[in-house]
Amino acid sequence: MVIRIYDTMTRQELELKPLKSNRVNMFVCGPTVYDLCHIGHARTYIAYDIIARYLRARGYSLFFLMNLTDVDDKIINRAKETGEEPLALSKRMTEEFYKDLSVLKIHGVNLFAKASEHIPEIISQIKQLIDRGYGYQVDGDVFFSISKFPDYGKLSHQKPEELTKHRIDPDPRKRNPADFALWKSQKPGELGWDSPWGMGRPGWHIEDTAITGFYFGPRYDIHGGAVELVFPHHEAEIAQAESASGEHPMVNYWVHTGILRIKGEKMAKSLKNFISIREAVKKYPPEAIRFYFASSHYRSQIDFDDENTKRAVQTVESLHATLNRMQDLMKSASKNAESSRDIQSILEMRKKEFHSAMEDDFNTPVAVSSLIALAHDVEGLVSEKTSYEDLEKVLAVFTEFSAILGILEKKEPKREPDIVPDLLNLLLQVREELRKKGDWTSSDRIRDRLKQIGIVVEDSPEGARWKLGIA
């Protein structure tokens, strides 16, 4: 069986042939961490998580790298609004991003690489580009000269004259309006690092290629990201990486996820249709969100709406019910009962359907249909008379499918919040207020009662503290 991937560059499905045996290096553009991530991010990162799960399930040794843009104009501007240091803001938002990924069960990334932690690699690659004649300095800024790279536009399939029509930063100092920044000089009050061109910070595009060049080398297997990044971001990445190394292609397979819309419109805060991941998981179970996105092909443009998401919730609940029924039947099933050929035949058919779908450019909608069909098959075929061996086989296939999609995973037992420390601290605050009022009797009663249950209160110049002691 062969995995085929749709490549944005060639606009064709290509057979997956890793550069090194069964080892696959995959890079996905991470977020610019200036705010909470939205469900468009969720759609993209769930898609690559499923791709990663499937590649690993098929025996590929996958190294999944994701960058985090923690140095950017958006971060600087938001930091000014909040009164924070830019890197403190990006660090805080990075931690929130990790929480969102965990809730959505996106666990497959091997390494998150922050731009701020790779400044030496970024400076080194800019030096290479200048030395090779692709970069040029103007005052304290460095730009990439697209006229030096004839293939600029090959990923987005644009002609050179079309490149200046949109998403261009005007600057009369550029040789060409479409030239883009490799290094930006430091403005008053902004963060910056020392460089051969003075204090400054990297441009957006150079962060990614310096990171992938450091970890993967000049060429690697898969580059992923949202389709809106094709131009100018990914186009610029190709120009930088191939110009700096002299090797091409930079990437063998360009994989892009489609746009997610809200009621037919692109999500935007100005339109008041912006939904954060945090808001979405409060309203819907995380695995239902995963199921909803997996029900559409990762390259398709889809709408996020209540009706379809509620339907996904119901389907996931039904799948859980089927899974629970099989597990209950296994508890009393006979290990000596005769195996059913019908069950074996159904399992083989569903496995073929599922894997054929995933091999065809990770066609999750068809794979999801195979899982649902398997659940219907199970409801009609298994009973108290089904052998333990057959139930075990059915459960194994059911688990295999759901694990690749990232749903129906074992739920962690709900933990009650540990409120004891908070209650003790609150009690000490009440005691301190009593002391300030001169109510020593009540204050001592709280201290003595706590001692009786094994908690020692110590008064100090910095305030009261508690610790576990001997009653």
Describe what you observe in this structure.
It is a single chain. The chain starts with a strand and ends with a strand. Helix content is 46%, strand content 16%. It folds into 3 domains: 4-279, 3-Layer(aba) Sandwich (Rossmann fold), CATH 3.40.50.620; 305-405, Up-down Bundle (Four Helix Bundle (Hemerythrin (Met), subunit A)); 420-468, no CATH class. The chain is α/β, with parallel strands linked by helices. It is flat.
Features:
single chain; 471 residues; alpha/beta; Rossmann fold; Four Helix Bundle (Hemerythrin (Met), subunit A); 3 domains; five-stranded parallel beta sheet; four-stranded antiparallel beta sheet; 14 helices; 16 strands; 46% helix; flat
Characterize this entry briefly.
The protein has 471 residues and is of the alpha/beta class.
Strand content: 15-25%
Query: Kindly, what is the distance between the CA atoms of the first and last residues, rounded to a whole number of angstroms?
Result: 68 Å
Query: What is the CATH domain class of the largest domain?
Result: Alpha Beta
**CATH architecture group name of the largest domain:** 3-Layer(aba) Sandwich
SSE pattern, N- to C-terminal: EEEHEHHEHEEEEHEHEEEHHEHHHHHHEE
Count the domains: 3
Helices and strands, with pairings:
Blueprint: E1 4-7, E2 12-15, E3 23-28, H1 39-57, E4 61-68, H2 73-82, H3 86-103, E5 111-114, H4 119-131, E6 135-138, E7 141-144, E8 180-185, E9 200-202, H5 204-216, E10 220-226, H6 230-245, E11 251-257, E12 260-262, E13 265-266, H7 277-283, H8 286-294, E14 302-303, H9 306-332, H10 341-359, H11 364-381, H12 388-405, H13 420-436, H14 440-452, E15 455-460, E16 463-468
Parallel strand pairs: 3-4, 3-10, 4-5, 10-11, 12-14
Antiparallel strand pairs: 1-2, 6-7, 7-8, 8-9, 12-13, 15-16
Helix pairs in contact: 2-3, 4-5, 4-6, 5-6, 8-9, 9-11, 9-12, 10-11, 10-12, 11-12, 13-14
